[in-house]
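Workshop exercise sheet. Pairs work together: one partner reads the sequence aloud, the other fills in the structure field after running the prediction. Swap roles for the next sheet.
Pair: D.N. / O.F.
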Amino acid sequence: MDNCIFCRLELEPDQNIVMSNEHCLFLQLGKSKIKGSQLEGAGLIVPIKHRETAFDLTQEEWEATYSLLQEVKMYLDEMHQPQGYNLGWNCGEAGGQHIFHAHFHVIPRYEDEPLAGKGIRYMFKGKENQRGLRPSPLAN
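Structure field:
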C-alpha cells in the first residue's frame, strides 16, 4: 500500500504514534493536543497490517484494538479530562470512509461544546439525511 497514510506514516508528517501494541497503533495529529481545539484529544486506532475495513480484522486485531482502547481511555482521561466519548468505524464510501485502511475513531467530548449531548446518531436523524430527498442522477 504505497500511498496509504496508515501503512506509510511518513506520508502524514503531523501524525504521531502515541501508543501501540503488537497489532495496533493509536495515532493523533498534532492539533489534537491543543487544549480547547475542536477535536482535542481525538485520535485513531489502526491495525498495523493493512485491512480495508473493520470487517477485515482478525480476532487478534479485534482483541488488540479493545486492549489498546482501554489504555487510550486512561491516557485521554488523564491528559484531557473529557466528559464523554464518541467511538466509531466508518466502513465503505456510503458509510463515510475516505481512507481505505480500517481506523477506529476515538473522539473525546466536552460539556462546553456547542453540540455537547449530541451523539453520532444526531447527524443521521436530521431531515437533511432523509432518504429519497437527493435528486436522482437519472432525473435529467
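Discussion prompt: The first helix runs from residue 59 to 80. What would you look at next?
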